[in-house]
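Write out the 3D structure for:
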Amino acid sequence: MKNINSLLIISICMLLLAACGPTISGTDEQSFKTSKAKMEEKLDKAEKENLEKALRVIMLKAMKEKWNAPEKYEGKSFDKMVMEMIDGKSYSAIISYAEDFLKADRDEKVATATAEIDSLQKEKVKAEAIAKKLDAFKLTKVSISEDEGFDEKQPYLDLVFTNTSAESLMGEYMFNIEIFSKKTGERIAAQGQGGTWNDDYAIKPNETYQHHEPLLSEAREHSNLWKTAKYPINDFAPYDLVIKAYATKITTKTDGTIERPKQDAAYFDAEIKKLNEEIKALKEQKATLDELELTDN
């Protein structure tokens, strides 16, 4: 018990000594400079650096507070705000004040990133649900045939979509056609197609929709084998082509018209991964002045 009491007394004495040390005056600029110089007389090199770091951190705190509540600090300069924050504080109090801000700022960033991850996860679920409905209008066959176009025979793209959903498709629709180089993966051509099916026309479950149009000009120019081709073409590898098509808009009685989201699941996964890495890095920070580097800027 005596040892505990002795330690307690020593701790109290140390706190009293620290409290009785030099303090910073924030009354005006000259008072600040004078009191700061007096404080630095009792500090070693490392402590002086920490004091300078702390003052810069407190300036950041002032900037943040004014940004978040401009009406509260209207007409008040950042320097004036800092002076008020440090007025009457000892060296140890200034250090603690700055580090408290660093910790609070770190924790706020973690909370913000965590909330953003939650929001992204919810958006991902919605996007996946919409994509699943659109993917039910499924490309089930792709081929290239020959047909007359602009008074000459040329390759035509034939697409067959099947309604694999449990609902009839009607009204507005749209799909994208994308053609890639098999060798490089580079996209050669892309085009959107769509329109509106009449009210009395519907693609029932398991029924198909056929689309027939001239092969996109960029895809034709990508190969010189068309004149010797044997139609219909079902293997596009000799022509260095990969042909894809997918629905971007469909309409049903239950859901009305739905459109494919701009971001897919891969986008959300990448954003969530970045935020998790950011949170991990933030949590590894002790949020102390020792982690900061003093620069001349």
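Residues 12-19 have pLDDT under 50 and may be disordered.
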